[in-house]
Amino acid sequence: MSTAQSPPGQVDRMDARALGLLFVLCGAIFLEGIDIAMLNVALPSIRADLGLSTGTLSGVVSAYVLGYGGFMLLGGRAADLLGRRRMFLWWLAVFVVFSGLGGLATEGWILLTARFVTGVAAGFMAPAGLSLITTGFAEGPVRDRALLLYAGTAAGGFSLGMVVGGLLTAVHWRWVFFAPVALSLLILLAGVPVLRALHGDRTARRGFGDFDLAGAVTVTGSMMLLVYGVVRLEHPADGWGWTAAVFAAGPALLGAFVAIERRAAAPLVRPGVLRSAPLVRANLAALLLTGGFFGFQFLVTLYLQEVRGWSTIQTGLAMALLGLDAVLAPTLTPVLVRRFGNMRVIFGGFVLVTLAYALFLRVEQDWPYAAMLPSVLLIGVAFAMAYGPITIAATEGVDESEQGLAGGLLYTAFQFGAAFGVSAVTAVHVAALGEAGGSSTAGVDAVRTALVVPVVMAALGTVTISTGLHRRTAATVDTPSIPAEQQPTRSA
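^ thats the sequence. predicted structure below, dont judge the formating
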């Protein structure tokens, strides 16, 4: 949707209107990131206060993941068909209500319900917010800068959430739920007037009668089963039979979804959308990037708290420098993209993050923080180089009517990556602990063994991006935003 003149209602320069829109949309994605990170830090306190079993406590995390990952693709397409602004504001309100319910929970089932619905709300809200940027900002440097700021804010939420979560939990774990409620209300009140006249929302409304209900049910069921299967990898002691059955049922439903879409008069997902090699490459890179990062973060948290005996606040502060990307993404990354092209910058980010994880393989029982610092700093820089540009690559060249779908695909990849990364390192870590037989160095040896998983995922990401490096950089060097009429034809 690129023309010489921006459509009425689109933002074409960084003025007060643009900053107001970014405040609302970046605030929402920051809220989503910090909410997840804060809860992870508060889990031990929640278990102690409510007397939850280990299975229920694990379910608190899994319920959110199931809701988020299961409904993300549906949420992205619903934004295209039912209105992006409508979906964003409605599900932000749902997020407010059920986050507050989580803070008031006195029983495990209440907390599980609240986290599942909060995850569903995030699954609708996140792709709607991203598509509001890609359709609300004029294509070119303004949109690229907005996307980089948006992505940096999201990544910063994950990093800062550990610090904020530790501080809030020190007061009481319920504040981990009540603080997002206050932020959500502020964003909601600001969002109603700011989003009222966006061009991108005027072309994206249909009635529920045009909605592909059969496709919606099958794709949501498939996504939830696949996410649940990945989560079950964390519990090998439960047996592999049920996990294998879940993994078989997920693809079966996905096959049914594909068959439905091929015959549907108004398909939820146009069958040709995944024929775009750049789109598939960007989403695979997103999955590998977040998979490696969340797996690494989980292992480092285990190392610092269980092996070293650090407190949640000490652990959060140690990882705070990961939030460096929130500063670099809107400042350094646009300069690098203009100079070297989008794909080269992503490639450089993957090289750095692979090196960062590999350096941590030398971890010892009493490693000083100075020895960890190079990895932490490299990850902060790497995410600034990769996360935002991947967001641009995953939405670039996609028709305006499918921007919500593109956002849903991207965030589904992010969520699957995060779930798979944590589950894979957990399975390897548990197996390594069993083989160590309770030796004095068992904890650090298990962490070192499991760290191979994020190293491999980051290396695979590097290879994935390298496959499209020459063609993409040739098109983007010194001209990161090319008008649509000058771009190669894509099937997205």
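The radius of gyration is 22 Å.
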